[in-house]
Design a protein that fits this description.
CATH class of the largest domain: Alpha Beta
Strand order of the largest sheet: 2-1-10-9-11-12-13-14-15
CATH architecture of the largest domain: 3-Layer(aba) Sandwich
Strand content: 25-35%
Number of domains: 2
CATH superfamily of the largest domain: ANL, N-terminal domain
Distance between the termini: 56 Å
Structural class: alpha/beta
């Protein structure tokens, strides 16, 4: 990756060195590196000279994936301002809370979200601008206030542990993450990276998309994930890499096109998730595609621990080894399991507006529990707050969820604890069966009994049509416990 201390400097280097080479392909648009840099300069001039965007101001974006969102990021980097990408899956009150919390100065939107954007603007007294207004002229060269330690990206956490918090990524954080991700994925200019995950999340933006631009590769950008569009892009545009999550992996594997789809251009599929269901991983491996896990958090880049292609087949369930420059500590070790602490140059130092994100020594406490193998690789076993302690024994949800998810009738499942007077807690299991399946609780229990110790077996079962999840797809175990109640059976 080109060496630079700010994102505008990096883009300028790519524009000089790569010029007409394609940076982005979006529908029938192809944007070269020189044009991408020119667009960012024009947009910075418009925002800074005409709109009066000041250093540190938060500019919100509400929309599907679009090249202008990436141009906006580079333009705001030039101005020393901050991009606030809004999660399109949230409800209006949740958007309002985020905008109010950080005091956003303006809201930009695409046509798909024009109606809620206008409503948000009217309710909050916020200037609202459609996507097309970003093409205007700015009058004169833009101000240059880029600096490594200036915040550029404000991303709110999913709120599984309470009220969402805004993680502030500086330009230095983003560049460090780009360098790590590019090195581990061996990104080079000939690569073609297919981006189908949303850019409002650090996974879609920072695991492959920005690292690809930093490496001079081509980003094949899709507005949103859809199985047909993804298969079409793979077969016609011939990407070499793509990033998926369990939900999109499942949608691809379950699609009728999966068995005959031409996936030959891909050298690997990377997956952003703490835990990957083994059946999905094996389905990709059966097609000759190594699934490379990336572990991290909104606050950590998120490229922290990664499983390279060469080790993927032999380390199913593991998230691999620390990325270059990442320190890992397992704190509070018990029975070989401890909380993952991370310290690295891509880890944010504060939440909005000025709440520390790390401890006094710079360690970020993830709240995730992991064990380390003899070869140094790490495997995530669950969340610290999700740990079930029954009769003095520690039971990690992942120990039960992985084998139960392998049952042919189970679509998805989640283990959680319920208070119990005799045992402290007992294990409960929420299960969503596949359409048409009629497996009984006793049959599911017997399936688990052949694979885990008896003390770990669920005492209570909860049948659901779908698991309650946050907007980022994380299971809400507290909601499950509330639904199950003390008398659930």
């Amino acid at each position: 990756m080109a060496q630079a201390s700010t994102l505008p400097e990096l883009l300028a280097l790519q524009a000089r060195g790569r010029g007409d080479a394609p940076a982005l392909q979006f529908g029938d648009q192809t944007i070269g590196y020189a044009e991408l840099a020119a667009r960012a300069d024009r947009m910075a001039a418009l925002l800074g000279n005409t709109w009066g965007v000041r250093p540190g101001e938060r500019i919100a974006w509400l929309g599907l994936n679009h090249p202008q969102q990436l141009v906006l990021l580079f333009a705001l980097a030039r101005l020393g301002a901050v991009l606030l990408p809004l999660n399109i899956r949230l409800a209006v009150p949740e958007w309002q809370a985020v905008l109010a919390d950080c005091g956003a100065a303006r809201l930009l939107h695409d046509a798909t979200f024009a109606v809620p954007a206008q409503a948000l603007g009217a309710a909050g007294g916020l200037p609202v601008h459609p996507l097309e207004t970003l093409d205007g002229a700015g009058g004169g060269p833009p101000p240059d206030r880029a600096a490594p330690d200036v915040p550029l990206l404000l991303v709110y956490t999913s709120g599984t542990s309470g009220r969402p918090k805004g993680a502030l990524h500086t330009q230095a954080n983003l560049l460090a993450n780009m360098a790590m991700a590019a090195a581990v994925q061996q990104l080079t200019p000939p690569d073609r990276v297919l981006t189908v995950l949303p850019l409002f999340h650090v996974g879609g933006l920072c695991i492959q998309t920005l690292p690809a631009l930093g490496a001079g590769a081509t980003v094949l950008l899709q507005p949103r994930f859809a199985p047909d569009a993804t298969f079409d892009a793979i077969e016609r545009q011939r990407p070499t890499l793509t990033l998926q999550v369990p939900a999109t992996m499942k949608a691809l594997v379950d699609d009728p096109r999966w068995p005959a789809a031409d996936l030959g251009s891909l050298r690997a599929v990377w997956a952003g998730s703490s835990l990957l269901p083994e059946p999905l991983v094996q389905a990709f491996h059966a097609r000759g595609l190594p699934v490379c896990n990336v572990y991290g958090a909104t606050e950590t880049g998120p490229f922290s621990i990664a499983l390279p292609p060469a080790q993927a087949v032999g380390h199913v369930g593991s998230c691999g080894w620390p990325a270059p420059g990442v320190e890992v500590r397992l704190a509070g070790l018990q029975q070989g399991v401890g909380e993952v602490w991370l310290r690295a140059p891509n880890v944010v130092q504060r939440y909005w507006p000025d709440q520390p994100a790390t401890d006094g020594e710079g360690w970020f406490h993830t709240g995730d529990l992991a064990r380390q193998a003899g070869d140094g690789s790490y495997t995530i076993v669950g969340r610290a707050r999700d740990l079930i302690i029954s009769g003095g024994e520690n039971i990690h949800p992942a120990e039960l969820e992985a084998p139960l998810a392998a049952h042919p009738d189970v679509l998805e499942c989640a283990a959680f604890g319920l208070p119990d007077a005799d045992w402290g807690e007992v294990v409960a299991m929420a299960v969503v069966l596949r359409p048409g399946a009629a497996c009984t609780d006793a049959q599911l229990r017997e399936h688990l009994a052949q694979r885990v110790a008896r003390y770990k077996l669920p005492r209570r079962w909860l049948r659901l049509d779908a698991l309650p999840k946050t907007a980022l797809g994380k299971v809400q175990r507290a909601v499950l416990a509330a639904r199950a109640g003390p008398q659930a059976g």
